[in-house]
């Protein structure tokens, strides 16, 4: 459509709700956050880092990987 029509067109989306907060962990390693850092230079065949952070203590484990893991493999790590 034209620029004028695009400006006049209404927004049909529902308003965004309030963000949900994550539960507060009560002990070590009960709640973790996972992230993958990809696109790193290759080092000994490894170019991905899986970060695992304990939300209670903020302790962090880093696991170098050769390739992106499946969800099943990630759960086992």
List keywords for this structure.
single chain; 77 residues; alpha+beta; three-stranded antiparallel β-sheet; 16% helix; flat
What does this structure look like?
Residues 1-21 are annotated as: Disordered. This is Gypsy retrotransposon integrase 1. It comes from Nothobranchius kuhntae (Beira killifish). One of its GO terms (molecular function) is nucleic acid binding. The chain has 77 residues and is of the alpha+beta class. It has a domain at 29-70. Helices cover 16% and strands 25% of the residues. It contains 2 helices and 3 strands. The protein has helices at residues 3-8, 71-76; strands at 32-37, 48-54, 60-65. A 3-stranded antiparallel β-sheet has the order 1-2-3, with no helix packed on it. The radius of gyration is 21 Å and the shape is flat. The mean pLDDT is 88.
